[in-house]
Amino acid sequence: QVHLVESGGGMVQAGGSLRLSCAASGRTFSLSRSAIGWYRQAPGKQRELVARITTAGSTNYADFVNGRFTISRDNAQNTVYLQMNSLNPEDTAVYYCKSDSFPFTTWGQGTQVTVSS
């Protein structure tokens, strides 16, 4: 019922910034009724939660974010953003958007983020 498309990834130098977007669509989909999470997976590692925003707008971040990232949403545009600042090479990974809207969980295809030293 929902289709997610991530964008905004790319290659930046250490200390740089990127803003990722997750555009959601679907006949019955409403971003306001969905919790959205950003996850990432680096080569050889498990997929891990980066940030999450609830239907009420509350946010949660992984410890490694350390204040560098901000997740936000635009319900009218059905889009969730992840603003990433002070990037370092350890942030290099494929970043995925996930939608939780009972009873459905949907993943996007991912967008590559590469941070060079």
First and last CA, distance: 40 Å
Q: Strand-and-helix sequence, N→C?
A: EEEEEEEEEEE
Strand count, sense and barrel status of the largest sheet are:
7 strands, mixed
Oligomer: single chain
Structural class by sheet pairing and helices:
mainly beta
What is the CA-atom radius of gyration, in angstroms? 14 Å
Amount of helix:
under 10%
* β-strand number: 11
Mean pLDDT: 94
Fraction in beta strands: over 45%
Number of distinct helices: 0
Textual characterization of the structure:
The chain has 117 residues and is mainly beta. Helix content is 0%, strand content 55%. The chain is built from no helices and 11 strands. It has strands at 3-7, 10-13, 18-25, 35-41, 48-53, 59-61, 69-74, 79-84, 93-101, 104-107, 111-116. The chain is globular, with a radius of gyration of 14 Å. The protein starts with a strand and ends with a strand. The model has no long low-confidence stretch (mean pLDDT 94).
Keywords:
117 residues, 55% strand, 11 strands, mainly beta, four-stranded antiparallel sheet, seven-stranded mixed sheet
What's the short story on this structure?
The chain contains no helices and eleven strands.
Walk me through the topology.
Elements: E1 3-7, E2 10-13, E3 18-25, E4 35-41, E5 48-53, E6 59-61, E7 69-74, E8 79-84, E9 93-101, E10 104-107, E11 111-116
Parallel strand pairs: 2-11
Antiparallel strand pairs: 1-3, 3-8, 4-5, 4-9, 5-6, 7-8, 9-10, 9-11
